[in-house]
Amino acid sequence: xxxxxxxxxxxxxxxxxxxxxxxxxxxxxxxxxxxxxxxxxxxxxxxxxxxxxxxxxxxxxxxxxxxxxxxxxxxxxxxxxxxxxxxxxxxxxxxxxxxxxxxxxxxxxxxxxxxxxxxxxxxxxxxxxxxxxxxxxxxxxxxxxxxxxxxxxxxxxxxxxxxxxxxxxxxxxxxxxxxxxxxxxxxxxxxxxxxxxxxxxxxxxxxxxxxxxxxxxxxxxxxxxxxxxxxxxxxxxxxxxxxxxxxxxxxxxxxxxxxxxxxxxxxxxxxxxxxxxxxxxxxxxxxxxxxxxxxxxxxxxxxxxxxxxxxxxxxxxxxxxxxxxxxxxxxxxxxxxxxxxxxxxxxxxxxxxxxxxxxxxxxxxxxxxxxxxxxxxxxxxxxxxxxxxxxxxxxxxxxxxxxxxxxxx
Length: 409
Ligand code: SF4
Prior knowledge:
Helix content: 25-40%
Structural class: alpha/beta
Order of helices and strands: HEHEHEHEEHEHEHHEHEHHEHEHEEEEE
CATH architecture of the largest domain: Alpha-Beta Horseshoe
CATH superfamily of the largest domain: tm_1862 like domain
Strand content: 15-25%
Number of strands: 16
Mean pLDDT: 95
Number of helices: 13
Low-confidence stretches: none
Largest sheet: 6 strands, parallel
Distance between the termini: 42 Å
Bound molecules: iron/sulfur cluster
Radius of gyration: 22 Å
CATH topology of the largest domain: pyruvate-formate lyase- activating enzyme
C-alpha cells in the first residue's frame, strides 16, 4: 500500500470507489479459502456491472492454486503470489521503490500496528499448508525491524504486535541462533512504544531468555500467545509438533514463573485424524487443569499436500463441532471466573474505538480482534473519548469475555 501511494495512486476505503481492486487472499484452511473465493466472486460481479475496471488477486490462495484459479476465474485480470509486490506495482503502471524500506500504509488504527518479524516457516507440522504457500523461515534483519518500529511510532503507533508464522524461531536462519530476546529488548528501547505484544510463539525449543526480557521491560505486555494445538501425546506426535504434554506443562510452568500474572493465550485443533474420545478427553482435562486466560479452537481441516493429508478426515464434522463446543463451554466458565476476580482492580487500558454509548478498550492482557474487551461508559469522558490513547480505569463488572469499567477520577 505504501508503494501504491508512493507511485501517486490513491487508495480508497470502499471497493465501489476503486478503479482497480486487489484482493489479498488466505489459503490456510477450508473456511478461509471459501471466504477468499466468495470475496473474489463478489468482485467479479462488480467487474461485470462495470463498477471496477480491473481485478487482481494476490496472496496465499493465489500462490497455492494459481493455475486452477486462472482456469476457473477468467474474469480476474491477473493472479499474483505472496511476494509479488514488485510485479503488482509494475502491472499498475508504477515502479517499485526500493528506498521505501520499512515504510507502510497502516490499515489498522495507527495507535496499534502489527509488526511482522519474519516470513515463512521451517517447522514440520503435519496439518499445516503454510510452509507450502509461504516457503521456509526468513527472518527480517533486526535493524530493519527497529527502523520500521520507529517509522510506525512516527505515525502514532503506541502498541506493536509482533507476528510471524513462528515468532520463537526468529533469528535462527539469519544469525544462526534465536534472537527473539534481543529483538524484544531493542524494540522496547524505541521511544514512545508503550506496549509490545508477542503473538504466535511456537512452544518447542522456546527461547526462555525472551521471558526475562519480557519481565524486565515495562513496555512489554504481560501476555503471550502460544498455540499448542493439542495436549495428547499421540496427537502431538502425529501432528509433528516436536513437543510432549509433559514438556508443554513444563514450559507453561516456566512462563508462569518468569512472568507472574501474565495472560496466556492458546489455540487448539479438534478432530485431527485419529483423535479418539480418550485423546479428546486428555485435551479437555488439560484445558481444565491449565486454566488458560484466552483460548480459541479450530476444527481440523484436511489440506492437500500436507503430511497429514494421507490420514484422511475420519472425524465427522458434527463430532468436531461437539468437541469444540465442549472446550469452549469449559473455557467460558474459566474465563468468567478470571474476569470476576478482576472486579475492583485498577488497570491501564488502550482505547480502540467508540461503539454506541461505550468506549471500547483493551488491557495489556488482550490482543485486538481475538481477546476480551473493556467497555467504559462514554459519559465518563465528558465528550472527549481518548480513542488511540490510554486511560486509567477501575473494573466494575465482568462477563465471560468482557469487562465493564469506569474511568478513574
Ligand atoms: S509452526 Fe505454525 S506455520 Fe509453521 S508449520 Fe507449524 S502450524 Fe504451520
